[in-house]
């Protein structure tokens, strides 16, 4: 995960997030087909989305990359940064919807399963598109807008985020993504 290029660091995290996102529609289909809800797995996905996708990855984008782009004259409203920020918020809302529905399902609420499926499908629809926009639009733009020194400083800031999270926690979340991809046969 340590590399000189901040956009390569973020792209590598996208590949980890994509493993979990790839599993999400498979789980939705299984639930839709009447299979039992693996509540533990859904809760682990919620924890991954909050700790890795949001705190670690979106944190680097929203708290470090986007403000730096703003300082370099990139508009923070509209396309692409404003749209990507809104998608982060949508992702957070969907993950909250998912965990609330999992809670309701465990409490015996009959309609909760449909809400779980809806939240999973929402997450599955949002992220591949979001990741594509960043890999093919935001990151090439970043590498044009920032000079070599600024890119190196940003890498250093990203590494500090990883250090705050801790190597063992980071590796645990990466291993979870690998595990989810394997058990749902969506490994890429
Ligand atoms: Fe993002
Ligand atoms: Fe991203």
List the helices and strands and how they pair.
Elements: H1 6-32, H2 39-71, H3 81-106, H4 112-145, H5 148-165, H6 167-183
Q: Could you explain the architecture of this structure?
A:
Helix 1 packs antiparallel against helix 2 and helix 1 runs antiparallel to helix 4. By secondary structure, the protein is mainly alpha-helical. It has one domain: Up-down Bundle (Four Helix Bundle (Hemerythrin (Met), subunit A)). The protein has six helices and no strands. Helix content is 82%, strand content 0%. It binds fe (ii) ion (2 copies). One fe (ii) ion binds next to helix 1 and helix 2. One fe (ii) ion binds next to helix 2, helix 3 and helix 4.
Tally of strands: 0
The topology string of helices and strands comes to HHHHHH
The proportion of strand residues reads under 5%
- Bound ligands, named by name, code or SMILES: fe (ii) ion
Whole-Å distance between the termini?
A: 18 Å
Characterize the largest beta sheet: strand count, sense, and whether it forms a barrel.
none
CATH superfamily: nmb1532 protein domain like
Q: Could you state the oligomeric state of the chains shown?
A: single chain
Low-confidence stretches: none
Continuous helix count: 6
Structure class: mainly alpha
Radius of gyration: 17 Å
